[in-house]
Every structure is written in C-alpha cells, then in structure tokens.
Amino acid sequence: MKKSIFNSSISIDDRHTLLYNSFSGRFITVKDRVFDIDSLTTDELRIKHPILCNQMLEAGMLVADNMNELEELEKRIMDGDDNSEEFILHVNPTLDCNFNCWYCYENHVSGSRMSDTVISSIEKLILTILRKPEIKSFQLCFFGGEPLMHFKESAMRLIDYTSNLCKGLNKNLSIQFTSNGSLISKSIIEYLSQFDCSFQITLDGHREEHDKTRNFKNGKESYDMIVGNILRLCNAGIDVIARVNYTANNVNGVIDILNDFDIVDEDAHTRLRFDFQRIWQDRTDRDDETESSMKSIRESFRNAGFTVLANYIPHDVGQSCYGDKVNHALINYNGDVFGCTARDFSQRNRIGVLDQDGVIRYDEHKLSRRNNAKLHKKVCRKCRIAPICGGGCKQVAFESMDNDRCTMGYNEIDINGIITDIFEYSYGLITG
C-alpha cells in the first residue's frame, strides 16, 4: 500500500486538517490536531492511526503498490473526451456583430456572412455524420459574431435541414445559440420553440454598467431589451443561461439584476440559470474582494430560487469542455475549421478547412499536437490536482506545450484555494 500522488493536506486552523484526493474527489477532516500526512509512512499510519488509515483507503488516498495512477488518469481523460454517440457542431454564421464590447477577443469582420457554398458544404458534413450508426444525438450550436444576424439565410436553413435529417434517421437533435440577445424577435421565438433549443445570453452587470459596455453601434442602450428577450424565451419554454460578466467596477450592482427577474413565473423559473463569470482582463487574484462579494451574490440568487452554475469551481477531467471532445468541430463562416470557441478565428488558430464535398481537411500535425497536449508536461504529471486540471483544456495546453511551467499559472497557494473552494461548495458551507 502506498500514498496516492494526488493527496493534499491543508491546515484549516490549529486543530483541524483537511485531507483531499483529487482523483477520487473525497475529503477527510482530521479533528483536534494539525495532521501532516507527508511525515508518516503507510506503516506508521496503519499502526498509529488505524481508523484514519481505513478511511484513507476508502477515500482513495492509499492505493495498491502496483497501481499506476498516471495511467488511470490518462484513461479518465480519454473517457471524458470520448463522445462517440454524439456529435457537437458549432457554426459561426458570421463574425460581424451589432455590438462592440471592449473585452471581446474576436476580430469582427464587418459584412461577413456564410455563402451558399459553405452552407452546402456544412449540410454535406452533417449528412455524413448523421449517417453513422453509432451517432445517437447531434448538437447544432451557433456562435459568432452575432449568430442571429442573417438568421433565415444561415441558421434557419441549417436547422431545417438538420431537423429533417434527424427525424428521418431517428437521431436526437438539440440546438444552442450563444447570442447577445438583442436580435431575438417574436417570429424567431415561435420558430425555435418547436425544437429542443437553448440560449446563452450575456449581461455586463446591472443596467447602468451594462449599458456603458454593451450598447449598439449607434449608441442605443440594450439592457432592458435583452432582459425582456430572456424573459420571453423562458416563457416560451426555451432554456436560457444568463451569463453575467462582472468586474471589480460593476460587481456591487450585480445583485440588483435579481429585481429585474422577480416577475418570472414558476415554470419559467426552471428554465433560467445564472452563470457569473469574471472578465479575464480584470482578474488579479482568486481571493480578492471582488471574488468574496460574488460568493455572497451567488448565494442570494440561489436563495431566490434560481439555479446558479458553479463554474468558479473547476470541473474534473471527466467533465471536459465540448472543445476537447473527439466528436466536435467549429466551422467558421468562410469554411475554416477550429477546435475552440474561446479564441480569435484567425488562420493561425484554425486546425483545418471544410472542402466543398463536406469533408474536413485537418492539419494533421497541429491536430495531433492539440489532441495530445493534456497532461503533456512533467509539472502536470507531478501535480496533486492533475485529475481536476489535466494540464488545462486541449486548447490551453496546446498553446503552452513548449514550456514546463504550470499551464494555468497556479502556485501552491492557488491550489490550496481551489481545494478549499471545492470543499466549501461541496458541503454547503457556501452556496455559489
């Protein structure tokens, strides 16, 4: 028997120690002592602390001598990325947008739109995918730019085509839009309500701060319009994630967003979830005053009966991003193919091209490096929270393959903070 390489021991105060194993996700709280797990051999644990030793064995903190934990982690990563019965296809109908938000990572292309040739190529790709007998479900996701621009000519055409195919081939279809929410009309809602459809729509804080950041190119304010559209979607039976972007400057007003959704009826209540995300350019510390304020705000939204996504708590590698999945691709309006929605859609980031026959011609060298980037670094293979992080998602890990520094920039204090966040959230000590 040996101690797991994924153990952590964190002193909570002068009388308690928190033990955690990131592979099993299990905690043990040792009471009435500051307990240093690293100072004891497994034999000493068995003799001096037999009850604790059994608890550690059950929690995966002690493992068999012949167990290769890195091989088990690699298998978990592969299993998490394997979505062989479904396919997730993202489509950028345009990289144009009717907003101009300061933090957007994309280089918008004014006037860009998907040609008939590219749409036809996507249809051929979809047909090839859906004809595979192992594929049981298909997710058609629209990104951008603002994907509701040129709605009838691009998104609606692809939805109609895919829906008819799925019905004929007995496949499940779900549709998702990542939108700024400003172009949603009554006719679009009526059309989409016949499908299994969902939206992610962003608010940039409460009304005053939002309208400073997210307004139309002509200067018109957008907060009340977007909130109204979110409510109309939910009332029509369409699920919405309201992503609330916050910064140190707007965090204090975020709580006021609650007042604008107090008219949501019980049925619509179940269709609206909130996802609070800090603008990456604004983040300086995991535990600064802004993050402390957000924990309280998350709790207030949960107390009001809303589902709040816990995205500030890292998922483990078994819950990987769609961009990590084997069966995933993103087709840009011009036919370029990408593996990730969180990067600028420039040629340097593309991993392939969709040809007119509906076949993705991948850059095999780039694709191979990207697919093998997780857990690539020595520092990752020695990290005690590798089962949570995995060395970052494929895109992040790929971009930092050529150095052996922590992909996520974590230090020991950060790692302990992540573990205590997970503990507090898991056991209801906070409700974020």
Helices and strands in order:
Blueprint: E1 2-3, E2 7-13, E3 16-21, E4 26-31, H1 42-48, H2 50-58, E5 62-63, H3 69-81, E6 86-91, H4 116-130, E7 137-142, H5 152-169, E8 172-179, H6 186-192, E9 197-203, H7 207-213, H8 223-235, E10 239-246, H9 266-269, E11 272-278, H10 289-303, E12 307-308, E13 328-331, E14 336-338, E15 352-354, E16 360-362, H11 364-371, H12 378-381, H13 386-389, H14 394-399, H15 412-426
Parallel strand pairs: 6-7, 6-13, 7-8, 8-9, 9-10, 10-11, 11-12
Antiparallel strand pairs: 1-5, 2-3, 3-4, 13-14, 14-15, 15-16
Keywords:
alpha/beta; 3-stranded antiparallel β-sheet; 15 helices; 11-stranded mixed β-sheet; 2 domains; 16 strands; TIM Barrel; 432 residues
Description:
- The structure is a single chain.
- With 432 residues, the protein is an alpha/beta fold.
- It folds into 2 domains: 1-67, no CATH class; 83-362, Aldolase class I (TIM Barrel, Alpha-Beta Barrel).
- Helices cover 34% and strands 19% of the residues.
- The protein has 15 helices and 16 strands.
- The strands form 3 sheets. Strands 12-11-10-9-8-7-6-13-14-15-16 form an 11-stranded mixed sheet. Strands 2-3-4 form a 3-stranded antiparallel sheet, with helices on both faces. Strands 1-5 form a two-stranded antiparallel sheet.
- The two termini are 37 Å apart.
- The model has no long low-confidence stretch (mean pLDDT 91).
